[in-house]
Amino acid sequence: MKRIAFLVVFLVANPAFAHKPSDAHLKLDVHGDRVDGRLDVAVRDLDAAVGIDDGDGSITWAELQAAEGRIAAYLEQRLTIDGCTLSQGAPALVDLSDGAYWAVPISASCEQTKALTIHYQLLFDIDAQHRGLVHVAGQTLIARDKSPVTAAMGESTSVTAFVREGVWHIWRGIDHILFLLCLLLPAVWRRESAKEVAREVFEIVTAFTLAHSITLVISAVGLITLPSRFVETAIALSVVAAALNNLVRIVDARWAVAFALGLLHGFGFSSVLVDLGLPSHELIGTLLGFNVGVELGQTAIVLAVLPLLFVIRKTLAYRALLFGGSGVVAVIATIWTYQRFMF
């Protein structure tokens, strides 16, 4: 019980699990020995880094202006390009799918621009899930830690990078993982045959994959776009629904639950790609790579969890996990729903 209580407190208290992981966007264009562009950082992330809010829970333009010097110093210390002298322009606010961003014009004079080695070190010390999306001359690179990234002119966005991004997105998305686990937990309930279990899990995973692939594509290409706040709230509600269905069986066909609620998760997956502004000729490759990564990450979770569930299916531990675990997940996801809707 102590471990369960700790898990509840940890997952609820950690803001990284209340919203989609934080992103920042560095967009650069190269003109001879000049590099010009813009750095967009979420206001909420800058508040965590340098302290902007005066304590009332609302960040105003006046508070941002008062913190402008601290923000500029923070960015200057954590963003450099080898062989280039960077300068910042007058900042402004822009709205992206997940809120307000501090947009700073960037310009630089460089010794050479055939390949740019960029040291992006923002926010990793306060949010391990943060990522820097670096757009340089038609290609997109992803900074996941303080290691430098290098953009060679004339190259295109790496599909392999987005396969990795898909894997990491599913692995670090605790809401997606809990939703999947809630669907998998009852699969071994009162079943003696591994073949029967495998069949049901195949149906569940296939339905979930088909559903989120549909909405991932239509959202990423711009056919339907939904506000991030709505999508993240709906995903939390889907976790509540899946957990409660384990406690009070409303729908026996879990593949139908996986499909219906998986449509919501596809919109959540698309948030990784929507703000990238990828050119149309690169979108198909990155979509395919990202979706393959999501499926690989999802398959790894199934292969790791399912054999264990099958082995313990007749024990008290399994019943505690099925009913007690589902109850805990329902509580956590209900709190996430409130956090995401309100904040």
Report on the structure:
The protein has helices at residues 2-13, 43-50, 61-66, 68-78, 159-172, 174-184, 194-220, 228-247, 254-274, 280-311, 316-342; strands spanning 23-31, 34-42, 79-81, 84-88, 92-96, 99-110, 115-120, 131-136, 139-143, 149-152. With 343 residues, the protein is an alpha+beta fold. The chain has two domains: 20-155, no CATH class; 161-342, Growth Hormone, Chain: A, CATH 1.20.1250. Strands 1, 2, 4, 5, 6, 8 and 9 form a seven-stranded mixed sheet that branches. The chain has a three-stranded antiparallel sheet with strand order 3-7-10. Helix 1 (2-13) packs parallel to helix 11 and helix 8 packs antiparallel against helix 9 (254-274). The longest helix is centred in the C-terminal third of the chain and has 32 residues, at 280-311. It is elongated. The two termini are 30 Å apart. The model is unreliable at 4-19 (pLDDT under 50).
Keywords:
343 residues; 2 domains; Growth Hormone, Chain: A; three-stranded antiparallel β-sheet; 10 strands; alpha+beta
